[in-house]
Automatic annotation (TrEMBL):
Keywords: ATP-binding, Helicase, Hydrolase, Nucleotide-binding. The lineage of its organism: unclassified sequences, metagenomes, ecological metagenomes. It comes from mine drainage metagenome. The keyword Metal-binding does not apply. Residues 1-133 form the Helicase ATP-binding domain. GO terms for molecular function: ATP binding; helicase activity. This is SNF2 family-related helicase. Coiled coil: none annotated.
Length: 257
């Protein structure tokens, strides 16, 4: 099991309580002790068939090569989406997973509750770990595309409803809290109504200008404008913060130009 460092102890506990698997936790703090305790001539995964390994520890060049040489035939990666986005540290994580996935005989299971966060490149980087061909799906939207149908064979989704049903059937006592909500509608009027109409017009103009320019970022702009409208509808304080952030970004872009 590979996971971010803050989840190592949690995964160690979950494996023991749910699957009765005694896993060793391999982190920067425990690595030296674990290596000292290994019987002479025995490899890490021979002595500890189940291990929870910190991604931040194992991604470094100092440890990565050795891990790749001895990595087990089944590797599970939690929070896999954190390995597919930009940044130096995350790039090292992605390179590690790329090399693990290059072995066709290895079973690689990627776990994530956020496979797509609006970053198209990161999403298709993640898919490429399943099969390098899936990276070419970006921009291909046909539901009958043979490669998209192939991707569907690798995708397993567990919704909140599925987990709730499983908890009920197994007697697991940790059910989800019941959400009770009431929606109340009210008319926007006065200065607040004028302000909201102005922001809505700005968002519409922004989205239409990107669509006409055909810059390739039109879909992301729609997500951005929807997020802005939600902030504005939330509260005046949220509106000020969101619009200030937008203004700062616009001014920074003008400075670059």
């Amino acid at each position: 099991m590979l996971c971010p460092p803050h989840l190592v102890e949690q995964w160690q506990g979950e494996l023991e309580s749910r699957f009765n698997l005694q896993a060793v936790a391999l982190t920067a703090a425990s690595a030296a002790r674990i290596e000292r305790d290994l019987p002479h001539g025995m490899g890490l995964f021979d002595h500890y068939p189940v291990a929870v390994v910190s991604l931040d520890y194992i991604k470094s060049e100092r440890h990565r090569a050795h891990f790749l040489a001895i990595a087990p035939e089944c590797v599970i990666v939690d929070e896999a989406h954190t390995c597919a986005t930009g940044g130096q540290g995350r790039q090292l994580r992605f390179e590690l997973l790329q090399r693990l996935s290059a072995d066709a005989n290895r079973h690689l299971i990627l776990l994530t509750a956020t496979p797509h966060s609006g970053d198209e490149t990161a999403f298709y980087n993640l898919l490429s770990l399943l099969d390098a061909r899936f990276a070419t799906l970006q921009g291909r939207t046909s539901a009958s595309d043979p490669l998209r149908l192939e991707l569907a064979r690798h995708f397993v989704q567990r919704r909140r409803k599925d987990i709730a049903e499983w908890q009920h059937d197994t007697g697991d006592g940790r059910g989800f809290p019941r959400r009770m909500k009431t929606e109340i509608t009210y008319p926007l009027s006065g200065d607040w109504g004028l302000f909201f109409d102005a922001v809505q017009g700005y968002c519409r103009e922004l989205a239409e200008s990107h669509a006409q320019a055909d810059t390739g970022g039109a879909r992301l702009i729609w997500y951005a404008t929807l997020a802005l409208l939600r902030c504005v509808a939330s509260s005046p304080a949220a509106a000020v913060k969101a619009l200030t952030t937008r203004l700062d970004g616009t001014m920074a872009g003008d400075d670059l130009l």
